[in-house]
Design a protein that fits this description.
Pfam families: GGDEF. It catalyses: 2 GTP = 3',3'-c-di-GMP + 2 diphosphate. Keywords: Membrane, Transmembrane, Transmembrane helix. By secondary structure, the chain is of the alpha+beta class. The chain has two domains: 216 residues; 166 residues, Alpha-Beta Plaits, CATH 3.30.70.270. 63% of the residues lie in helices and 10% in strands. A six-stranded mixed sheet has the order 2-3-1-6-7-8, with helices on both faces. A two-stranded antiparallel sheet has the order 4-5. Helix 1 runs parallel beside helix 7, helix 3 runs parallel beside helix 5 and helix 6 runs antiparallel to helix 7. The longest helix is centred in the middle third of the chain and has 38 residues. It is elongated.
């Protein structure tokens, strides 16, 4: 494949990506990362088309303008990867770095620098921008997937190959005795073609991988409050259920329910109800340790898991949360909303299943609500559960 065919393949490849991206999520608003990547492909497609028509169009278009367009596309490529990594600082660096790269390359043209040096400058600038994208991918190398690591290694190797081609273009413009300049040029453009393919498929596969990870997260996380949902909480609870069969310090469970939550939704709307749920989670987190776990069971009910905490200690934590919620004031529609919670507290027993554990905690919760709400009810301790079966201890 000759150089001109490679350039045409680069132009058509980027153009086809532009078309696919135009229709991808056409009805939905695209993310900034995807938008930047789409513009990058448009700029690169335009640049390669101009380079393909070198000798047909004016030199100003197929030389300086084409290369500046190519630099823009490569810079936006890197920016899209930095945006996908959650680092928005690239936006401040984009214009200065692009302006500096364009100035250096245009200066070579204005000063009529040797063709080999101009080519070297172009290759090195493209490789530099591509390496910037590689650094964005490498930020999470330790916790990255095999796909991400493969892309980092491959893209870094291609960047170095393009940079090496640039250095050789300046040092040995006529090539070696056994390798012609045409072959070296073909290697450089071949590396650029592989860069386009690797970047395109890599970005799309990483986007798909990210989407799958988010879907997997939503299976165990409540979207509103960003705490584990029922399934996620049960998964966190499982190892502590197993540990309860061994001698040692106990683990407690608290079920929390907002009192008269339906009244809040009916009076102020569901948006305000959502704010109340988020505020409740924030209050609970402030009273919990890093090792404690909070999860949403559904509606206005939450569960708290307190590892290595006996029932008496869990009751103290529940009382602190109850008092903090009672003192909480939320502003909505020019009104101040105050809410209270009722809680049922129990400790995991050696013979417990999740059914018996939650049944006992629910029983304590119902007792607190029947006693007038804004209460903490304690399930009977295992040592005297047989004597006082069904009784609870209530505090307020």
């Amino acid at each position: 494949m000759d150089i001109k065919t490679l350039v045409l393949a680069l132009a058509l490849g980027n153009l086809s990506l532009c078309a696919a991206l135009f229709f991808f999520e056409y009805e939905n608003k695209k993310s900034l990362s995807l938008s930047a990547w789409a513009v990058a492909k448009q700029a690169q497609a335009g640049a390669w088309f101009l380079l393909y028509f070198r000798g047909v169009l004016p030199d100003l278009l197929t030389g300086p303008l084409a290369n500046v367009l190519l630099f823009t596309g490569m810079a936006l490529d890197a920016g899209a990867l930095w945006e996908a990594a959650g680092r928005s600082g690239w936006r401040k660096m984009l214009l200065p770095s692009l302006a500096a790269a364009s100035f250096i390359y245009l200066a070579c043209h204005v000063l009529d620098v040797e063709a080999g040096v101009r080519a070297a400058a172009g290759f090195l600038i493209v490789a530099g921008f591509f390496l910037a994208g590689v650094f964005a991918l490498a930020l999470v190398w330790r916790h990255g997937t095999m796909l991400r690591r493969y892309l980092v290694v491959t893209m870094a190797a291609l960047s170095l190959l393009v940079a090496g081609r640039g250095v050789l273009a300046a040092a040995m413009p006529d090539g070696w005795s056994w390798v012609s300049a045409t072959v070296l040029q073909g290697v450089g453009f071949g590396a650029l073609y592989l860069m386009m393919l690797t970047n395109a498929f890599g970005y799309l596969l990483l986007s798909r991988e990210k989407l799958q990870a988010e879907l997997a997260r939503l299976e165990v996380v409540d979207a509103l409050t960003d705490v584990p949902n029922r399934r996620g909480f049960y998964q966190a609870l499982a190892p502590w259920m197993a540990l309860a069969r061994r001698p040692g310090q106990g683990t407690s469970l608290i079920i929390v329910s907002l009192d008269q939550f339906k009244r809040v939704n009916d009076s102020y709307g569901h948006a305000t109800g959502d704010l109340v749920l988020k505020a409740l989670v924030d209050v609970c987190k402030k009273q919990l340790r890093d090792s404690d776990q909070i999860g949403r069971l559904g509606g206005p009910e939450f569960a708290l898991l307190l590892p290595r905490t006996e029932q008496a200690g869990a009751v103290m934590v529940a009382e602190r949360i109850r008092a903090a919620v009672e003192a909480m004031q939320l502003r909505a529609d020019k009104a101040i909303i105050t809410v209270t919670v009722s809680m049922g507290v129990t400790v995991i027993r050696a013979d417990d299943s999740t059914v018996t554990l939650f049944k006992r905690a629910d029983g304590a919760l119902q007792s607190a609500m029947l006693a007038g709400s804004n209460r903490v009810a304690e399930a009977p301790d295992a040592t005297f559960a047989e004597i006082e079966h069904g009784d609870v201890i209530i505090s307020s």
